[in-house]
Design goal:
0% of the residues lie in helices and 55% in strands. By secondary structure, the chain is an all-beta fold. The chain has a seven-stranded mixed sheet with strand order 1-20-17-22-15-13-14, with no helix packed on it. The protein folds into two domains: 125 residues, Jelly Rolls (Sandwich), CATH 2.60.120.10; 97 residues, Sandwich (Jelly Rolls).
Amino acid sequence: MEKTILHKADTRGHADHGWLQSFHTFSFANYHNPERMHFGALRVLNDDTVSAGMGFGTHPHENMEIISIPLEGDLEHQDSMGNKTVIRNGDIQILSAGTGIRHSEYNKNTDEPVKFLQIWIIPNKRDTEPRYDQITLDPKERHNKLQQVLSPNPQDAGVWIEQDAWFHLGTFDKGTTTDYQFKKQGNGLYVFVLKGTITVNNQELNSRDGFGIWNTDTVSIQANSQAEFLLMEVPMAF
């Protein structure tokens, strides 16, 4: 039987650090909700806005797949592997922490905020060699269709991670419909709306709403307005 869980935008945890406004779909840092620890292997979904010239100082991670998707502005990344790069809207970044890595993230601009999604996926392999990658996506490839941006296969489209997970982005005109087919049996799908209104299997979702669905074979999606959304297929058991 199909199972679902709805997380409305205004029910998320919120942290106001002055320079950082962060909305947490799942428990993170000082926000702890025992009913919102994860959705399968999806452990963290943070919707962050960093003030001009501010950022996260150098800090460690290990045994976590960390994905950053910039929405506005320029985010500067530095890490202990020697990478120093900037990611912008249209890019996707993967930091596969493995045995351990240290990194920092700063808003490169002094006159505008940077907005990005920070997503953590629990890996299916521990203590792997740390790895960093980023790619620039073609936004035309998600206009009224689903653009794969992440998978478990280095040969596939998008970045790859140490987990049987697949991410897709969509930018749909009003009235556009599509069906999502699961890539692996036993996985679930978490839908996060970036802009607009969509209906997923009869559930209407608005901007920044999240919706998890599992124990089903197909997911139908309809855009009720101009809409942008992220689909995250992840294992429910891990």
